[in-house]
Amino acid sequence: MMNRTRLFLATLLLMFSAASILPQRAAADEDDPPSRVARLSFTRGEVSFGPAGTDDWVSAVLNRPITTGDKLWTGDDARAELHLGSMAVRLGQQTGFSFLNLSDRMTQIRLTEGTLNLRVRRINEDESIEIDTPNLAFSVLRPGRY
User: Fold this and answer.
1) Which of 50, 72, 96, 143 is a plausible cystine mate for 112, CB 3.0–4.6 Å?
2) Which helix (H) or strand (E) holds 5?
3) Pairwise CA distance, residues 48 & 42, whole Å
4) For residue 26, what is the DSSP state?
5) pLDDT, tens digit (0-9, with 9 covering 90-100), for 7-51
6) Long-range contact list for 103-110, CB < 8 A, 24+ apart?
């Protein structure tokens, strides 16, 4: 009888400690950095960077990781290029750019104004690439230049 009581108490203690750890683990997962980021590989002229969640703008720095919510702005006679896997994104002058969503399977780009040149060398079957502009949204379905 004593062994069953000890076993019951030990099981009960294990369940309570597991229940108290799981919420902390879930919260820590939300703070993890993204698994996929773009890299700012080239800038010419005045290129500004706005980190996600802030209204502050700073000068963009080469090799800066760019992810969901981050914004870029190219000024007069400025250019910028980002690399993301097998994709290259080139921004022309006076262009507003941000990632609406960037995950392992989804790349969703917002172009608020300006020009964007996109080169996609390969797309996985489960991957989705979408460009959203003020006038339209389109999905890239196969490799090519857009």
Assistant:
1) 96
2) helix 2-30
3) 13
4) H
5) 665 665 556 665 666 555 454 455 566 678 999 999 999 999 999
6) 103/34, 103/35, 103/36, 103/68, 104/35, 104/36, 106/130, 108/132
